[in-house]
Amino acid sequence: MTDAKQSPKQPKQLTDRLFATERKPEDFRFDASVARVFPDMIRRSVPGYTTVIPMIEVITEQYVQPGTNCYDLGCSLGAATLAMRHGIHHDDCQLIGVDNSGAMIERCRHYVALDDHPLPVTLRCEDILDTELSDASVTTLNYTLQFVPPEKRESLLRRIADATRPGGALILSEKVRFESEQEQEIQTRLHHEFKRANGYSDLEISQKRAAIEQVLIPETLDTHKQRLLTAGFSEVFLWYQCFNFVSILAIKPK
């Protein structure tokens, strides 16, 4: 649990230059080098990210229930965690952020401590596939499920649904792929143009894509919707899309 009265220095905001020079091909990892530049990386790489985060606060406020747990699974530096925190107006709720990267959790503690809000936040450095879930009203998977092996995604969503109170919600944000090859090509091209508009070079785009393509496995929107229904959610809505990035709201039946 983080003491909100601490006053650590603001983590230094660095520009993402990790793929700016030629490097040996290797799979993408959420290590200390990524954690240092992550705010800049995700803002410049994920279309709509700066819209999704504040809307997580709005959705949390609508679905949070008194005396429940709220989870941010794959919390990274805590942007969604803090959005949830500001949407929770019950002082008997527990807010838990989980990430398996120690570097991410360490920097997340700084951001949580700097945030001016009285609700405590518990941070767990562990695999979301192993973390204990119970008595939840709102859970967020913000661009996280895409990094879980596809064969393990359904069991994770079942665990979340089973742990969610009736009327509770899951916010699932993901990169998706498209059934149509033409749409896939167009949406991918627009995503790359978004990155170029944010200052990434062709080399950076190419090397990042090569590093991440074996660890970030996107699926179609229909696959996500059907899996959520199978897991135990009764209503599944697409509430946001920008190019090949979407956010879905799944609601547990009352």
UniProtKB/TrEMBL annotation:
Catalytic activity, EC: 2.1.3.-
Q: Name one GO molecular function term.
A: carboxyl- or carbamoyltransferase activity
Give start and end of each Methyltransferase domain: 72-168
Q: Which InterPro entries match?
A: CmoA, Methyltransf_25, SAM-dependent_MTases_sf
Matches recorded under SUPFAM superfamilies: S-adenosyl-L-methionine-dependent methyltransferases
**Record keywords:** S-adenosyl-L-methionine, Transferase
Instruction: Identify the domain of life.
Output: Bacteria
Where does the chain bind S-adenosyl-L-methionine? Y49, G74, C75, S76, D99, N100, D127, I128, N142, R209
The UniProt record lists the keyword Transferase? yes
Reactions it catalyzes: prephenate + S-adenosyl-L-methionine = carboxy-S-adenosyl-L-methionine + 3-phenylpyruvate + H2O
User: What top-level class of enzyme does the UniProt entry assign?
Assistant: transferase
* One GO-annotated biological process of the protein: tRNA wobble uridine modification
Residue intervals passing through the bilayer: none
Assembly notes = Homodimer.
Which family, according to UniProt?
A: Belongs to the class I-like SAM-binding methyltransferase superfamily. Cx-SAM synthase family.
User: Which function does this protein serve?
Assistant: Catalyzes the conversion of S-adenosyl-L-methionine (SAM) to carboxy-S-adenosyl-L-methionine (Cx-SAM).
Q: What protein name does the entry list?
A: Carboxy-S-adenosyl-L-methionine synthase
Task: Give me the gene this protein comes from.
Answer: cmoA
